[in-house]
Amino acid sequence: MAEQPQKPKKSKNVKKKLRQTQRVLTRGAGRILNKINTFRLPVNENLFQTAVKLTVTAAAIAAVAFVCISDADISPSGTVRGFRDKRVLSHSSGQGYPAEINGSRSIEADAVSHGTAVLTDTSYTVYDIKGRELISQTHYMASPTMKTADRYTLLFDRMGTAYTLRTLSGSVCTGETDHAIVAGAVSRSGRFAFVTNYDTAHSYVHVFSKNGKSLHKWKSGSYHITDISISPSGHTVAMCGVTTENGQLKSTVIIQKVGGNANLREYTFDGTLLVAVQFTGDGSVAAIGDDKAVRLRVNEEKTQIYSYAGRTLTGYDTSDNGQLALTFSSDGQNTSAVVINAACEEIANVATDLISPYMELTNSRINLISQSRFYSYNFSGKLMASADIPADSQSVLTSGGKVLIRGITTISEVS
Questions:
Q1: Structurally, what CATH architecture does the domain formed by 143-413 represent?
Q2: pLDDT score for 94
Q3: DSSP string over 81-143
Protein backbone atom coordinates (compact mmCIF):
# COMPACT_ATOMS: atom_id res chain seq x y z
CA MET A 1 0.00 0.00 0.00
CA ALA A 2 1.31 3.44 -0.88
CA GLU A 3 2.49 5.69 1.92
CA GLN A 4 0.20 8.55 2.88
CA PRO A 5 2.19 11.78 3.23
CA GLN A 6 0.32 14.84 4.44
CA LYS A 7 -1.38 16.70 1.64
CA PRO A 8 0.13 20.13 1.08
CA LYS A 9 -2.26 22.97 1.98
CA LYS A 10 -2.09 24.81 -1.31
CA SER A 11 -4.38 27.71 -0.54
CA LYS A 12 -2.72 28.50 2.80
CA ASN A 13 0.75 28.26 1.28
CA VAL A 14 -0.18 30.60 -1.55
CA LYS A 15 -1.82 33.08 0.87
CA LYS A 16 1.25 32.98 3.10
CA LYS A 17 3.58 33.67 0.18
CA LEU A 18 1.28 36.46 -0.95
CA ARG A 19 1.30 38.12 2.50
CA GLN A 20 5.08 37.84 2.76
CA THR A 21 5.57 39.26 -0.73
CA GLN A 22 3.11 42.06 -0.05
CA ARG A 23 4.86 43.11 3.18
CA VAL A 24 8.31 43.18 1.58
CA LEU A 25 7.23 45.01 -1.57
CA THR A 26 5.00 47.45 0.33
CA ARG A 27 7.88 48.54 2.58
CA GLY A 28 10.22 48.94 -0.39
CA ALA A 29 7.69 50.71 -2.59
CA GLY A 30 6.59 52.92 0.29
CA ARG A 31 10.13 54.15 0.90
CA ILE A 32 10.64 54.93 -2.77
CA LEU A 33 7.31 56.70 -3.18
CA ASN A 34 7.85 58.69 0.00
CA LYS A 35 11.11 60.01 -1.42
CA ILE A 36 9.39 60.93 -4.66
CA ASN A 37 6.55 62.56 -2.74
CA THR A 38 8.92 64.99 -0.97
CA PHE A 39 9.15 66.93 -4.21
CA ARG A 40 5.37 67.13 -4.68
CA LEU A 41 2.39 68.70 -2.97
CA PRO A 42 1.19 66.93 0.20
CA VAL A 43 -1.35 64.19 -0.28
CA ASN A 44 -3.71 62.37 2.07
CA GLU A 45 -1.52 59.79 3.87
CA ASN A 46 -4.27 57.14 4.12
CA LEU A 47 -5.03 57.37 0.41
CA PHE A 48 -1.33 57.20 -0.35
CA GLN A 49 -0.77 54.03 1.71
CA THR A 50 -3.92 52.42 0.29
CA ALA A 51 -2.74 53.10 -3.27
CA VAL A 52 0.66 51.59 -2.53
CA LYS A 53 -0.87 48.45 -0.98
CA LEU A 54 -3.33 47.96 -3.84
CA THR A 55 -0.59 48.31 -6.45
CA VAL A 56 1.77 45.97 -4.66
CA THR A 57 -0.96 43.41 -3.94
CA ALA A 58 -1.85 43.28 -7.63
CA ALA A 59 1.81 42.72 -8.53
CA ALA A 60 2.17 40.03 -5.86
CA ILE A 61 -0.98 38.23 -7.00
CA ALA A 62 0.28 38.26 -10.60
CA ALA A 63 3.67 36.90 -9.50
CA VAL A 64 2.21 34.10 -7.36
CA ALA A 65 -0.30 33.19 -10.08
CA PHE A 66 2.48 32.94 -12.64
CA VAL A 67 4.52 30.68 -10.38
CA CYS A 68 1.54 28.41 -9.62
CA ILE A 69 0.60 28.09 -13.29
CA SER A 70 4.17 27.37 -14.40
CA ASP A 71 4.78 24.84 -11.58
CA ALA A 72 8.03 26.59 -10.71
CA ASP A 73 9.93 25.58 -7.58
CA ILE A 74 9.44 28.52 -5.17
CA SER A 75 10.44 26.77 -1.96
CA PRO A 76 13.17 28.53 0.08
CA SER A 77 15.75 25.90 -0.89
CA GLY A 78 14.64 26.07 -4.52
CA THR A 79 14.98 29.86 -4.57
CA VAL A 80 18.47 29.70 -3.06
CA ARG A 81 19.51 27.03 -5.53
CA GLY A 82 18.17 29.17 -8.36
CA PHE A 83 20.47 32.01 -7.31
CA ARG A 84 23.40 29.58 -7.11
CA ASP A 85 22.59 28.21 -10.55
CA LYS A 86 22.65 31.71 -12.04
CA ARG A 87 26.06 32.40 -10.50
CA VAL A 88 27.46 29.42 -12.41
CA LEU A 89 26.63 31.22 -15.67
CA SER A 90 29.49 33.66 -15.11
CA HIS A 91 32.07 30.87 -15.05
CA SER A 92 31.76 29.38 -18.54
CA SER A 93 34.84 28.24 -20.46
CA GLY A 94 35.73 27.19 -23.98
CA GLN A 95 35.37 28.63 -27.46
CA GLY A 96 31.73 27.72 -28.10
CA TYR A 97 30.18 25.52 -30.77
CA PRO A 98 31.35 23.14 -32.09
CA ALA A 99 32.15 21.80 -28.63
CA GLU A 100 34.14 18.65 -27.97
CA ILE A 101 32.39 16.24 -25.61
CA ASN A 102 33.96 14.98 -22.39
CA GLY A 103 34.09 11.25 -23.05
CA SER A 104 34.53 8.79 -25.89
CA ARG A 105 30.90 8.95 -27.10
CA SER A 106 27.79 11.02 -26.48
CA ILE A 107 24.59 9.26 -25.45
CA GLU A 108 21.93 11.97 -25.38
CA ALA A 109 21.37 15.73 -25.18
CA ASP A 110 18.49 17.86 -23.93
CA ALA A 111 17.62 21.48 -23.17
CA VAL A 112 17.82 22.65 -19.55
CA SER A 113 17.57 26.07 -17.92
CA HIS A 114 20.32 28.33 -19.23
CA GLY A 115 21.75 25.82 -21.68
CA THR A 116 22.08 22.32 -23.07
CA ALA A 117 22.85 19.15 -21.10
CA VAL A 118 24.91 16.42 -22.74
CA LEU A 119 25.34 12.94 -21.31
CA THR A 120 28.29 10.81 -22.42
CA ASP A 121 29.61 7.40 -21.43
CA THR A 122 31.68 8.98 -18.64
CA SER A 123 30.35 12.51 -17.93
CA TYR A 124 27.45 14.94 -17.62
CA THR A 125 28.16 18.40 -19.09
CA VAL A 126 26.09 21.56 -19.49
CA TYR A 127 26.90 24.15 -22.16
CA ASP A 128 25.55 27.70 -22.24
CA ILE A 129 23.64 29.07 -25.24
CA LYS A 130 26.91 29.87 -27.02
CA GLY A 131 28.35 26.41 -26.49
CA ARG A 132 30.75 27.27 -23.68
CA GLU A 133 31.11 24.73 -20.89
CA LEU A 134 29.36 25.65 -17.64
CA ILE A 135 29.87 22.49 -15.60
CA SER A 136 31.11 18.95 -16.15
CA GLN A 137 30.69 16.03 -13.77
CA THR A 138 32.19 12.56 -14.09
CA HIS A 139 29.87 9.63 -13.50
CA TYR A 140 30.58 5.92 -13.04
CA MET A 141 27.38 4.42 -14.42
CA ALA A 142 27.43 1.41 -16.73
CA SER A 143 24.25 2.40 -18.62
CA PRO A 144 23.78 6.13 -17.91
CA THR A 145 20.39 7.70 -18.66
CA MET A 146 19.27 11.33 -18.37
CA LYS A 147 15.88 12.96 -17.83
CA THR A 148 15.49 16.75 -17.65
CA ALA A 149 12.84 19.28 -16.58
CA ASP A 150 13.61 22.99 -16.39
CA ARG A 151 16.58 23.38 -13.97
CA TYR A 152 16.58 19.73 -12.83
CA THR A 153 18.42 16.78 -14.35
CA LEU A 154 17.92 13.21 -13.14
CA LEU A 155 20.84 10.91 -13.91
CA PHE A 156 20.42 7.19 -13.28
CA ASP A 157 22.02 3.87 -14.15
CA ARG A 158 19.51 1.90 -16.21
CA MET A 159 19.37 -1.68 -14.92
CA GLY A 160 21.59 -0.48 -12.07
CA THR A 161 20.63 1.22 -8.79
CA ALA A 162 22.53 4.54 -8.61
CA TYR A 163 20.92 7.94 -9.23
CA THR A 164 21.62 11.67 -8.82
CA LEU A 165 19.30 14.66 -9.01
CA ARG A 166 21.20 17.85 -9.80
CA THR A 167 21.08 21.41 -11.10
CA LEU A 168 23.83 23.67 -12.43
CA SER A 169 25.14 24.43 -8.95
CA GLY A 170 25.56 20.78 -7.93
CA SER A 171 23.88 17.67 -6.60
CA VAL A 172 20.47 18.06 -4.93
CA CYS A 173 20.30 14.45 -3.75
CA THR A 174 22.07 11.18 -4.49
CA GLY A 175 21.05 7.64 -3.65
CA GLU A 176 20.49 4.04 -4.68
CA THR A 177 17.30 2.08 -5.23
CA ASP A 178 16.76 -1.37 -3.74
CA HIS A 179 16.30 -2.97 -7.16
CA ALA A 180 17.39 -2.36 -10.76
CA ILE A 181 15.97 0.78 -12.39
CA VAL A 182 13.90 0.18 -15.53
CA ALA A 183 12.73 3.76 -16.22
CA GLY A 184 12.76 7.20 -14.60
CA ALA A 185 11.25 10.68 -14.85
CA VAL A 186 11.67 14.13 -13.27
CA SER A 187 9.33 17.11 -12.90
CA ARG A 188 9.83 20.88 -12.93
CA SER A 189 9.19 20.89 -9.19
CA GLY A 190 12.14 18.55 -8.62
CA ARG A 191 10.07 15.51 -7.70
CA PHE A 192 11.25 12.38 -9.51
CA ALA A 193 10.02 8.84 -10.12
CA PHE A 194 11.44 5.41 -10.90
CA VAL A 195 10.17 2.06 -12.09
CA THR A 196 12.28 -0.79 -10.71
CA ASN A 197 12.24 -4.56 -10.85
CA TYR A 198 10.84 -6.32 -7.81
CA ASP A 199 11.15 -9.81 -6.31
CA THR A 200 7.47 -10.58 -5.73
CA ALA A 201 5.84 -8.25 -8.26
CA HIS A 202 6.43 -7.44 -11.88
CA SER A 203 7.31 -3.79 -11.22
CA TYR A 204 7.71 -1.35 -8.36
CA VAL A 205 6.95 2.38 -8.76
CA HIS A 206 8.60 4.97 -6.49
CA VAL A 207 8.13 8.76 -6.30
CA PHE A 208 10.52 10.94 -4.30
CA SER A 209 10.72 14.57 -3.25
CA LYS A 210 13.70 16.54 -4.56
CA ASN A 211 15.39 15.87 -1.20
CA GLY A 212 15.06 12.11 -1.65
CA LYS A 213 12.09 11.56 0.69
CA SER A 214 9.76 8.74 -0.38
CA LEU A 215 6.32 10.10 -1.32
CA HIS A 216 4.68 7.20 -3.15
CA LYS A 217 5.15 3.45 -3.61
CA TRP A 218 3.11 1.06 -5.70
CA LYS A 219 3.61 -2.56 -6.74
CA SER A 220 2.30 -3.88 -10.04
CA GLY A 221 1.50 -7.55 -9.88
CA SER A 222 -0.06 -7.83 -13.34
CA TYR A 223 1.87 -5.60 -15.73
CA HIS A 224 5.51 -5.12 -16.56
CA ILE A 225 5.75 -1.31 -16.38
CA THR A 226 7.82 -0.15 -19.36
CA ASP A 227 7.84 3.64 -18.88
CA ILE A 228 6.81 6.39 -16.44
CA SER A 229 6.21 10.14 -16.58
CA ILE A 230 5.56 12.68 -13.83
CA SER A 231 3.46 15.83 -14.18
CA PRO A 232 5.19 19.26 -14.03
CA SER A 233 3.87 19.84 -10.49
CA GLY A 234 5.01 16.38 -9.40
CA HIS A 235 1.57 15.50 -8.02
CA THR A 236 0.57 12.92 -10.65
CA VAL A 237 2.34 10.02 -12.35
CA ALA A 238 1.43 8.19 -15.55
CA MET A 239 2.84 4.82 -16.51
CA CYS A 240 2.40 2.25 -19.24
CA GLY A 241 2.84 -1.49 -18.98
CA VAL A 242 2.38 -4.74 -20.84
CA THR A 243 1.28 -8.30 -20.05
CA THR A 244 -0.16 -11.37 -21.74
CA GLU A 245 -3.62 -12.78 -21.08
CA ASN A 246 -4.59 -16.15 -22.53
CA GLY A 247 -1.62 -15.85 -24.86
CA GLN A 248 -2.70 -12.43 -26.12
CA LEU A 249 -0.75 -9.20 -25.73
CA LYS A 250 -2.36 -6.56 -23.53
CA SER A 251 -1.17 -3.05 -22.55
CA THR A 252 -2.30 -0.47 -20.03
CA VAL A 253 -1.94 3.20 -19.17
CA ILE A 254 -2.30 3.90 -15.44
CA ILE A 255 -2.53 7.36 -13.87
CA GLN A 256 -2.07 7.79 -10.12
CA LYS A 257 -2.05 10.67 -7.67
CA VAL A 258 1.18 10.80 -5.71
CA GLY A 259 0.37 9.48 -2.24
CA GLY A 260 -2.98 8.05 -3.33
CA ASN A 261 -4.21 4.49 -2.83
CA ALA A 262 -6.24 3.99 -6.01
CA ASN A 263 -5.71 4.61 -9.71
CA LEU A 264 -7.20 7.86 -10.96
CA ARG A 265 -7.52 6.30 -14.42
CA GLU A 266 -6.69 2.95 -16.00
CA TYR A 267 -7.00 2.23 -19.72
CA THR A 268 -6.35 -1.14 -21.39
CA PHE A 269 -5.58 -1.92 -25.02
CA ASP A 270 -5.69 -5.42 -26.48
CA GLY A 271 -3.04 -6.44 -29.00
CA THR A 272 -0.92 -3.29 -28.54
CA LEU A 273 2.60 -3.00 -27.14
CA LEU A 274 2.90 0.36 -25.36
CA VAL A 275 6.54 1.41 -25.00
CA ALA A 276 6.47 5.06 -23.84
CA VAL A 277 4.26 7.50 -21.93
CA GLN A 278 4.68 11.23 -21.42
CA PHE A 279 2.91 14.24 -19.92
CA THR A 280 2.76 16.78 -22.71
CA GLY A 281 2.90 20.57 -22.72
CA ASP A 282 -0.89 20.98 -22.78
CA GLY A 283 -1.40 18.83 -19.66
CA SER A 284 -2.56 15.69 -21.45
CA VAL A 285 -0.82 12.30 -21.52
CA ALA A 286 0.53 10.70 -24.68
CA ALA A 287 1.18 6.96 -24.88
CA ILE A 288 3.18 5.51 -27.78
CA GLY A 289 2.55 1.97 -28.99
CA ASP A 290 3.69 -0.27 -31.81
CA ASP A 291 0.42 0.15 -33.77
CA LYS A 292 -1.25 3.25 -32.32
CA ALA A 293 -0.72 6.44 -30.32
CA VAL A 294 -3.11 7.37 -27.52
CA ARG A 295 -3.95 10.78 -26.05
CA LEU A 296 -5.85 11.10 -22.76
CA ARG A 297 -6.47 13.45 -19.84
CA VAL A 298 -6.57 12.79 -16.11
CA ASN A 299 -10.09 14.23 -15.70
CA GLU A 300 -11.63 12.48 -18.74
CA GLU A 301 -12.50 8.82 -19.28
CA LYS A 302 -12.51 9.11 -23.07
CA THR A 303 -9.31 8.37 -25.01
CA GLN A 304 -8.26 9.67 -28.41
CA ILE A 305 -6.54 7.11 -30.65
CA TYR A 306 -4.38 7.57 -33.74
CA SER A 307 -3.91 4.34 -35.73
CA TYR A 308 -0.72 3.75 -37.70
CA ALA A 309 -2.71 1.93 -40.41
CA GLY A 310 -0.06 -0.74 -40.93
CA ARG A 311 2.89 1.67 -41.10
CA THR A 312 6.06 1.00 -39.10
CA LEU A 313 6.83 3.56 -36.39
CA THR A 314 10.45 4.79 -36.54
CA GLY A 315 10.42 7.73 -34.09
CA TYR A 316 8.37 10.20 -32.05
CA ASP A 317 8.69 13.53 -30.24
CA THR A 318 6.47 16.09 -28.46
CA SER A 319 6.53 19.88 -28.61
CA ASP A 320 6.18 22.38 -25.77
CA ASN A 321 2.54 23.06 -26.67
CA GLY A 322 1.54 19.38 -26.51
CA GLN A 323 1.62 18.33 -30.16
CA LEU A 324 2.93 14.86 -30.99
CA ALA A 325 5.02 13.96 -34.04
CA LEU A 326 5.47 10.43 -35.36
CA THR A 327 7.71 9.20 -38.17
CA PHE A 328 6.77 6.18 -40.26
CA SER A 329 8.22 4.05 -43.02
CA SER A 330 6.16 1.69 -45.14
CA ASP A 331 8.99 0.38 -47.31
CA GLY A 332 12.10 0.80 -45.14
CA GLN A 333 13.32 3.58 -47.41
CA ASN A 334 11.07 6.64 -47.53
CA THR A 335 9.96 8.30 -44.29
CA SER A 336 6.88 10.40 -43.56
CA ALA A 337 6.41 12.64 -40.52
CA VAL A 338 2.94 13.21 -39.05
CA VAL A 339 1.98 15.78 -36.39
CA ILE A 340 -1.21 15.22 -34.39
CA ASN A 341 -2.96 17.39 -31.80
CA ALA A 342 -4.58 16.41 -28.49
CA ALA A 343 -7.65 15.12 -30.37
CA CYS A 344 -5.38 12.85 -32.47
CA GLU A 345 -6.18 14.87 -35.59
CA GLU A 346 -3.45 15.25 -38.20
CA ILE A 347 -2.29 18.85 -38.50
CA ALA A 348 0.77 18.04 -40.63
CA ASN A 349 1.89 15.23 -42.90
CA VAL A 350 5.31 15.57 -44.53
CA ALA A 351 6.54 12.96 -47.02
CA THR A 352 10.31 12.60 -47.55
CA ASP A 353 12.73 10.25 -49.28
CA LEU A 354 14.95 10.11 -46.18
CA ILE A 355 16.11 6.79 -44.77
CA SER A 356 15.65 6.37 -40.98
CA PRO A 357 16.03 10.05 -40.05
CA TYR A 358 16.34 11.40 -36.51
CA MET A 359 13.48 13.79 -35.81
CA GLU A 360 12.68 16.75 -33.53
CA LEU A 361 9.34 18.56 -33.22
CA THR A 362 9.18 22.24 -32.24
CA ASN A 363 6.03 24.36 -31.99
CA SER A 364 6.20 25.19 -35.70
CA ARG A 365 8.81 22.97 -37.37
CA ILE A 366 9.69 19.35 -38.01
CA ASN A 367 13.48 18.99 -37.99
CA LEU A 368 15.05 15.89 -39.53
CA ILE A 369 18.63 14.73 -39.98
CA SER A 370 19.76 11.92 -42.25
CA GLN A 371 22.86 11.05 -44.26
CA SER A 372 24.90 14.12 -43.20
CA ARG A 373 22.11 16.59 -43.98
CA PHE A 374 19.73 18.69 -41.88
CA TYR A 375 16.20 19.46 -43.08
CA SER A 376 13.56 21.70 -41.50
CA TYR A 377 9.94 21.60 -42.69
CA ASN A 378 6.97 23.72 -41.69
CA PHE A 379 3.63 22.06 -40.99
CA SER A 380 2.53 22.67 -44.59
CA GLY A 381 5.34 20.41 -45.77
CA LYS A 382 7.50 23.20 -47.20
CA LEU A 383 11.26 22.81 -46.82
CA MET A 384 12.33 25.91 -44.87
CA ALA A 385 16.03 25.17 -44.35
CA SER A 386 18.71 22.58 -45.07
CA ALA A 387 22.41 22.29 -44.32
CA ASP A 388 25.37 19.94 -44.31
CA ILE A 389 26.10 18.42 -40.88
CA PRO A 390 28.80 16.10 -39.47
CA ALA A 391 28.70 12.53 -40.71
CA ASP A 392 28.47 11.15 -37.15
CA SER A 393 25.27 13.07 -36.29
CA GLN A 394 23.06 11.23 -33.80
CA SER A 395 20.20 13.63 -32.94
CA VAL A 396 18.87 17.16 -33.48
CA LEU A 397 17.84 19.53 -30.68
CA THR A 398 16.62 23.13 -30.47
CA SER A 399 18.00 24.79 -27.33
CA GLY A 400 18.36 28.45 -26.46
CA GLY A 401 17.05 29.43 -29.88
CA LYS A 402 19.77 27.45 -31.66
CA VAL A 403 19.43 24.22 -33.64
CA LEU A 404 22.10 21.83 -32.37
CA ILE A 405 23.40 18.56 -33.74
CA ARG A 406 24.68 15.91 -31.35
CA GLY A 407 27.44 13.86 -32.87
CA ILE A 408 29.41 11.02 -31.33
CA THR A 409 32.26 13.30 -30.25
CA THR A 410 31.00 16.89 -30.78
CA ILE A 411 28.00 19.18 -30.32
CA SER A 412 27.65 21.62 -33.21
CA GLU A 413 25.29 24.38 -34.31
CA VAL A 414 23.45 24.28 -37.63
CA SER A 415 24.72 27.25 -39.61
A1: 7 Propeller (2.130)
A2: 77
A3: HHHHHHHHGGG-BS--SSEE-SSS-EEEEEEETTEEEEEESSEEEEE-TTS-EEEEEE---SS
